[in-house]
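Q: A reviewer asked whether we had any structural model of the full assembly, not just the individual parts. We don't, so I'm hoping you can provide one. Inputs are below.
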Amino acid sequence: MTRADWREQKKAATRRAIQEHALRLFLAKGYEATTVEEIAAAAGVSHMTFFRHFPRKEAVVESDDYDPLLAELIAARPAGEDPLTAIHRAVHHALAAVLPEDRETVLVRTRLVLGTPALRARQWQNQDATRDLFATELARREGVAETDLRLRVLAAAALAAVTTAITTWADGDGTADLVALVDEAFAALGVPVDHAVRR
Amino acid sequence: MTRADWREQKKAATRRAIQEHALRLFLAKGYEATTVEEIAAAAGVSHMTFFRHFPRKEAVVESDDYDPLLAELIAARPAGEDPLTAIHRAVHHALAAVLPEDRETVLVRTRLVLGTPALRARQWQNQDATRDLFATELARREGVAETDLRLRVLAAAALAAVTTAITTWADGDGTADLVALVDEAFAALGVPVDHAVRR
DNA sequence: ACTAACGTGTTAGCGACTAACATAAAGGAG
DNA sequence: CTCCTTTATGTTAGTCGCTAACACGTTAGT
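A: Here is a predicted structure for the entire assembly that you could use as a starting point for your response.
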């Protein structure tokens, strides 16, 4: 077996080309007004190649999955910590790891998603997975079944807080501090802000 | 002007026929496997007539909008009441008004929606509207702007509680008490259960 | 009775997506 | 080096949701 496969590079290059042309066209003329055929043509491939790399048109916009990172961070929280606080701190750390690098990218893509019904529908589906992940991690921490209603509600509420903060951030002019908005959102759920959390 | 318009009756009959045949077919062979053309044929109309009555295929399943009722009920809550408590009580009353009549219908349709990605996507969109309605009503009660982050988070959390309760209910064998599940869900958010609420 | 309004049908077309089959080029086995 | 398999891509044709344009007939008010 060869691991230096140059085919992988070519395939990855095609994928990147499709994605870049797609995002460029979406921002230029809108998501709905941009045809898969147009994207494929711009990237110099056929529409079948598009669908081999991205199973649906929306997939080309879906962001990288931060769920594994979040799962780790929640699992790393101290055992006795309140569920909402645990998720709050985990999100805190995740944002600290992601934002400095990807802030602008995340902002642009979030705005595109929020402004496009078809993309929002997909995002809700992804959030469902994140909510289940929150619930699963919380249940493991407390050693109860993952069907526990209390923890499922807290997981959903925590995600609602994060989502509300991000939406507020993306709806604004972009100068707001997302981390501060997340703190404020969790504070609304009764989670005290920890000013010593930055390290 | 005639108000006994018999055309309205005929139109309503066609609409009802389409809806009934659609739900029957969806339950029999699944939503995706049922074609609009099939539904139209079963109802004895053309596919265009289907789309004149229901703008999208999913619309045939979307439940009646309970938002106006909820808006009223929230507005009727006493001014000093905690936001989550206000929504909790409003939902309580709404369920008391709806469940005795439509319990079975709601259960069947909820299960269909939960098991069909395309329908879930639509439902999320409707929930977005409900969440905004919660936030707007809460903001009016407290006399603040409806962009207030704290109230938007609480509205989203409250809706998450309701949704989690309904999902748990529909996932079970149907013998569970939805009202009790809603109470439990709000209790997880720190809202005390009021045993004197039934009147 | 004439005419405007309205519910419906017909036809044609677009765009997302899939399946079947073809092709060309790279990698490995002998 | 040659044969054969693998793999990324192309071609073509089709399904399905959905829309637009236009025609037709029945009903409702003048």
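A: Points you may want to mention in the reply: Residues 7, 10-11, 14, 45-46, 48-49, 52 of chain A lie near DNA strand D (CB under 10 Å from a C1'). Chain A touches chain B at residues 117, 120-122, 124-125, 147, 149-154, 156-157, 159-161, 163-165, 168, 181, 184-185, 187-190 (CB under 8 Å).
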